[in-house]
Design a protein that fits this description.
226 residues, alpha+beta, two-stranded antiparallel sheet, 5 helices, 10 strands
Length: 226
Amino acid sequence: LPKFYCGMSTCFRKELTSHGVDASGLFRVHQFEKVEQFAITSPHNSWKIHEKLIRTSEEFYKSLGIPHQIVNIESKSLSLATAKKYDLEAWFPNQKKYRELVSCSNCTDYQSRELKIRYGYPKLGMSHTSKRSQFVHMLNATLCASQRTMCCLLENCQTDAGIRVPEPLVMYVGTTFIPFVKPPPKQSNRSQGNKNKKNLEVKNKRKANRSNSKKKSATIKNKEEM
């Protein structure tokens, strides 16, 4: 130990979007491809390995020239399986905010106890099946979710004339620059007006729902006092 693995798989979400959030584009889709890092280590070394995994992910996005930040997730937002988690968030100029690209978790022995994965020291006469053996610690970290990373690259590498190709990708793309072949579509005043009207309707509906809920709570309170 430690043992390091890399997995490539097609992933599926249970729903297309989360209640209408990020419904358009490639940022959040039902099916996406992902490259994941896995590590199996001893309890004495798992926190060092956790830092190593997030640094590996950070180096990957640094090589692509993507602005990013690393967030240490607060304990109340962690799942039952996770002892500590980092998120790597990249800057999306169009949205004017950082969005999650990487999740790096140390699950300690939560998963290994279910799977009964132990380790021992055969040279000392202690095999992994003995009572003195310990459960391994299991960690995982995203390296690249292809669709979301592609969105980030297009936004950060975009110029007025086209898309700059990051140096590590030039050998795969075959060029350093991808020019635009058509001018950007012009949004008509009518479509913009319809969009503003729709947003106003949504806001008014939310205000009406809040006022109705307040009226209901006030009515219930008056009944209780009577």
